């Protein structure tokens, strides 16, 4: 809690009367949204006290404060993954800091493998629910009572109002043909899954699989922070559609979906 306060105070000192309304986390290959922000302040993660530093090449390591679609936003350009060797409290540290800085909604994106047989490359899946298959979660350990309760309820991990706004925004933008809603399974990675693991994930009810998001969502729900999360389907993992993927393929597909994701996020922000 002390570290969270120090990081918050450091940022607040520069932000002054900039009051962020929403936080945004940009996933792998989905950083272009950052170019659309009217940036007022830019922080390198390395300069923020106690912030972890991103090690993934496709992720920048910057926190941006600025305006997007008329809303004041904090944007994490680069996120932290458990597979990089961070502890879960480190992975969610920035989310907690953004909440302490005053954000009232959190919008999260990620690149994910599609398990549902109908999903196609570059589809956008709104998360309705998730399955946490990470080996641990950020709430393990002494509860930070200032942030939230010991036993947070998880019946509605993804905010229904934000989901409705996203659906509405997708209709306005004529993106409905790319939109899906489903269950995201979060695994530690960094290796992708075996064919048997994909079949298992499908059997237990997952529509998409990735290596992020759920820790941040758990931390947000703990703090009572409403979350919208969107997966960009970057590869297909349904039986019969499986083929070898590499990070370059994933980034290429993410680039195709990126303008749709950017438009969707801006439209949701405008409706907040
Ligand atoms: N698994 C499979 N495919 C993926 C993943 C994953 O974790 N992330 C992006 N595409």
From TrEMBL:
GO cellular component, one term: cytoplasm
UniProt cross-references to InterPro entries, sorted A to Z: Nucleoside_phosphorylase_d, Nucleoside_phosphorylase_sf, Pur_Nuc_Pase_Ino/Guo-sp, Purine_phosphorylase, Purine_phosphorylase-2_CS
SUPFAM superfamilies in alphabetical order: Purine and uridine phosphorylases
EC code: 2.4.2.1
GO BP term, pick one: nucleoside metabolic process
CDD domains named in the record: PNP-EcPNPII_like
NCBIfam families listed in its UniProt record: PNPH, PNPH-PUNA-XAPA, PRK08202.1
Job of this protein: The purine nucleoside phosphorylases catalyze the phosphorolytic breakdown of the N-glycosidic bond in the beta-(deoxy)ribonucleoside molecules, with the formation of the corresponding free purine bases and pentose-1-phosphate.
Membership in a protein family: Belongs to the PNP/MTAP phosphorylase family.
Quaternary state and interactors: Homotrimer.
Stated name of the protein: Purine nucleoside phosphorylase
Organism the protein comes from: Hymenobacter actinosclerus
């Amino acid at each position: 809690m002390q570290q969270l306060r120090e990081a918050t105070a450091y940022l607040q000192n520069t932000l002054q009367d900039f009051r962020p309304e929403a936080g945004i986390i940009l996933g792998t290959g989905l950083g272009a949204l950052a170019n659309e922000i009217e940036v007022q302040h830019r922080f390198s993660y390395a300069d923020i006290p106690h912030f972890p530093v991103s090690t993934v090449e496709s992720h920048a390591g910057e926190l941006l404060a600025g305006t997007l679609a008329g809303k004041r936003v904090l944007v994490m350009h680069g996120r932290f993954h458990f597979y990089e060797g961070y502890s879960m409290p480190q992975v969610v540290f920035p989310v907690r800091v953004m909440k302490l800085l005053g954000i009232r909604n959190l919008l999260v994106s990620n690149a994910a493998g599609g398990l549902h047989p109908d999903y196609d490359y570059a589809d956008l899946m709104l998360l309705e629910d998730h399955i946490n298959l990470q080996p641990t979660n950020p709430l393990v350990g002494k509860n930070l009572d200032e942030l939230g309760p010991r036993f947070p309820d998880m019946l509605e991990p993804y905010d229904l109002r934000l989901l409705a706004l996203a659906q509405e925004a997708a209709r306005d933008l004529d993106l409905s043909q790319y939109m899906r809603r489903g269950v995201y399974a979060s695994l530690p990675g960094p290796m992708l899954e075996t064919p048997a693991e994909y079949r298992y994930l499908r059997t237990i009810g997952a529509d998409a699989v990735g290596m992020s998001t759920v820790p941040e969502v758990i931390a947000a729900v703990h703090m009572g922070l409403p979350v919208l999360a969107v997966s960009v389907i970057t590869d297909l993992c349904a039986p019969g559609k499986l083929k070898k993927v590499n990070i370059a393929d994933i980034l290429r597909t993410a680039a195709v979906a990126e303008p749709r994701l950017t438009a969707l996020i801006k439209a949701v922000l405008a409706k907040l």
